[in-house]
Amino acid sequence: MERDRSSSSSSDEEEDRRTLVPQNEVKSRHPFCAFEIGDLAARIRRGFWTSKRYLLAICLPLVLILLFFSLDLGSLFNGVSIVRADSPGDRMWESELQALYLLRNQQLGLLKLWNRTLSAAHPGSEASPSTPSVPSNSSNSTTSGKVVDLPQSFNSVSFEEFRSALLEQIKLNKQIQTTLLSPHRVGNTSSELSDDNMGFDLSGSGIDVCKKVERPKERKTIEWKPKKDRYLFAICLSGQMSNHLICLEKHMFFAALLGRTLILPSSKLDYQYDRVLDIDHINQCFDRKVVITFEEFYEMKKNKMRIDRFICYVASPPCYLDEEHTKRLEKLGISLGKIEAAWPEDAKLKTQKKRVVDDIMPKFLSDDEVLAIGDMFYADVEEEWVMQPGGPLDHKCKMVIQPSRLIILTAQRFVQTFLGSNYIALHFRRHGFLKFCNVKKESCFYPIPQAAECILRMVERANAPVIYLSTDAADSETNLLQSMVVFNDKPVPLVKRPDHNSAEKWDALLYRNHMGGDSQVEAMLDKTICALSNVFIGASGSTFTEDIIRLRGGWESASQCDEYLCQGELPNYIAELQ
Fold first, then answer.
1. Which GO terms describe its molecular function (predicted)?
2. Strand order in the sheet with 467-471
């Protein structure tokens, strides 16, 4: 075998040499001589064929050009496709990727819905996710740091929410179909399936996720029938107007329990309540005189104004009165009786004990003409009873403590001018809130991008085109927030109440009655606009928010979508404490 391989190899080499030798011989030939006749004939033949090749190379393109124009061969190349970035193949690939992304979202949505149905079936499960709920009507001041417990009835998925989630999946499925069919569109026409049985009118679904919360048909109430010449002198000192209104509502509860007429504080010691509240409305709700102003009390008593007895609900400081406020009462011409605490032992406690009616009556019953019990904002007394929609008292109105008629009309005119019938109201508390929230167990101060995400989820859920923004935030914060609240590639306007402009007539009533520019009037106007909204997003821990929730509950404007901003979430970044 090796011999065969050797012989085969040598024969190949000999063949190669036979091929190469003539070329070498040509190079080694002597210069051409005129007397070499045989070689001349061979050269003539080789020159002729070389010239023929050159001639063919020149003529062939000319022939092709003549054929192209004579036979119109250019049309043959029209069917040849050139691959471009926007070719149907690329568009189809892109649409398929987008459809896969949407299908993934649909899967996540269905899994979320499934988990929520599991939470309804097994409420004790640790894996049950919490769902948005309507904010509680319990008071929660920026100074007390109370934790508001949300109603347990909203922790599971409702049938209406189930229907809404199902509708969203149907919409998403339709979007997936449209995406997959988009590469097959010709001009403005789409090759969508025209099966009548597959059609679904989304506009006629009849699903209202953010429907109004029905007011309980029955309330736990007591009658308010004041005894003749028996008064309860209201003292509210802590915090801003919202805190004082909560204090007044608790005073009204005590006045009803004790059978006394409530005396509103003087504007020299407190706010001018008759500018922001409808005092006549309060008395009309009970068909009797249950509330009088300090001026009316002064006219009755002239120079004999006296608080006969202080029985303080708050033990430390007694009645929440310090030396400065005591002097201011005396400057009003009021002589003060003995100040004593109902529960002196509470002075050692950091937080107020919960009290019920049976605890109150033995301590505060008195036959003195004018009684005072001090600031009641921090009083933890029958909270569920006091804070229920409509309040704890038996009356014929939706709300007892509500804005003045001028403020309500101005709010309605503002809504008609700027917002329309479908809007979300957002109370975006920022000033002083960073430090207040960060000392709480769960901070409530959210970075702007996170707040924007929470707001967009509500925009999608409520299907509202505009948001009313009630805020004390700086323009730098609200401008950033506005730039990030974009839904379906369209910015959702954040509408703030503008400064007075004589060309605009929505606030003419206030200025005509010399109420324009009053900070307390404007604050109550903000609350009223928020209370009239379809959906309300509040600031956890703010009594301003709690007063809006109280109004919405009484006016029956509260919706099942009402919640605190980013409810159930912690800020994604929290600064260290100082």
1. peptide-O-fucosyltransferase activity
2. 494-495, 467-471, 424-428, 535-538, 563-564
